[in-house]
Amino acid sequence: MRRLASCSVVLSATVCLPAMAADPVSFEWDLRFRHEHVEDDAFLRDADATTARLRAGLRFDLGHGLNALVEGEGVVDAGNRHNSGANGLSAFPSVIDPDGVELNQAWIGWKRDSFGATLGRQRINLDNQRWVGAVAWRQNEQTFDALDLTLKPSEDWSLRYAWLDRVHRVSGDDARDRLARERDLSTHLFNAGYKRGKQQWTGYAYLHDDQDVAAASTATYGLRWTGSLVRGPLTWGWTAEFARQMEHANNPADFAHSYWLLEPSLQAKGVTWKAGWEHLGGDGRHALQSPLATLHAFNGWADKFLVTPPGGLEDRYVGASGKAGKFAWATTWHDYRADTRMAFGSRYGREVDLSLSRPLWKGWDGLVKIADYRSDGLARDTRKLWLQLQWTH
Q1: In this predicted model, what pLDDT tens digit does every residue of 213-260 receive, in sequence order?
Q2: Are 259 and 245 contacting, i.e. CB atoms less than 8 angstroms apart?
Q3: Element (H, E) at 9
Q4: Tens of pLDDT, residues 251-293
Q5: For the residues of 31-58, what is the DSSP string, one character each?
Q6: Which uninterrupted H or E stretch holds 255?
Q7: Does the predicted model carry a pTM greater than 0.70?
Q8: Which of 19, 87, 112, 191 is the least crowded, having the fewest Cβ atoms under 10 Å away?
Q9: Rounded to an integer, what distance in angstroms lies between the CA atom of residue 169 and that of residue 119?
Q10: How far is CA 298 from CA 53, 215, 349, in A?
């Protein structure tokens, strides 16, 4: 099966024609304005990107458990002082929010009782999006041509399987690098979850077959445990995850890397404190990767580790978040080190991230975000600032 998105559009149109008069159709959209400023010491010039993103779609309730969505998005750039990946301005730091108009989602789905199926171009987020996600932070979302099946045999159990035929990446259809636009895949995702009380266990097997770049094909098997415990005014929480990743399909390499995450947390008096240790294994020649993930959410907002260095990555961090009136705030401090000692040593650098958000008017939200990366040998010092305004219908 190829071009699942095209198939779903045809199926949607075929089913919708007789149903449009009797069945409801809803229009949904959101609008986002953002300015991103980047100071990267590897470049002589700073980057400034002022962009606007409109995403709009029609959702059809066709009855008998059938539904469909057709959604497009457009991004407009107000200037040319950054490298968008499509504009050729390589003298500036990267801000991957290129101009363009694209089909974001086009799928038809069916859900009845405990079973659901979705066919077409769609958004897929698994667990915390460490391995598979939509990269919602970027103006151009990452979506998949896929068949997604869900089964919930009981209140405690949930099963999910997805076959990915193609990934449409955040760099957009006009990226200078063809492989940054999209990739042909034959990827199988298996995810099983069990929930009891405030604890949840998830087992997964992600068999990623990149048919454009064989060296990117991997098999990842893991187990994730999350939970919380209330003791008086305190709420204790935890996340523990372990996985192994190895070569898969036509990948010519031979490797096996470990992944683990330990993250205890404590909520008290409206403030949530957390500490974490995330390990992405590497041997100095090759390292664990997660190319389908929502990578901006991990290892610092400066995005220095979108590709794991060959020596692997040890990210030890502490953070806090909470609310002050209508304001929501968060801050995290990271210490980055190699799993394997490299030529320049085992330390990569440190980073501080800060964010402050607030609802402004009905439907409108404002956000200020800062990332400050200080290098100890990997890349160069980098500072980023974001100012964002978003309206959601």
Answers
A1: 999 999 999 999 999 999 999 999 999 999 999 999 999 999 999 999
A2: yes
A3: helix 4-19
A4: 999 999 999 999 999 999 999 999 999 999 999 999 999 999 9
A5: EEEEEEEEEETTSSS-EEEEEEEEEEEE
A6: none
A7: yes
A8: 112
A9: 19
A10: 23, 23, 15
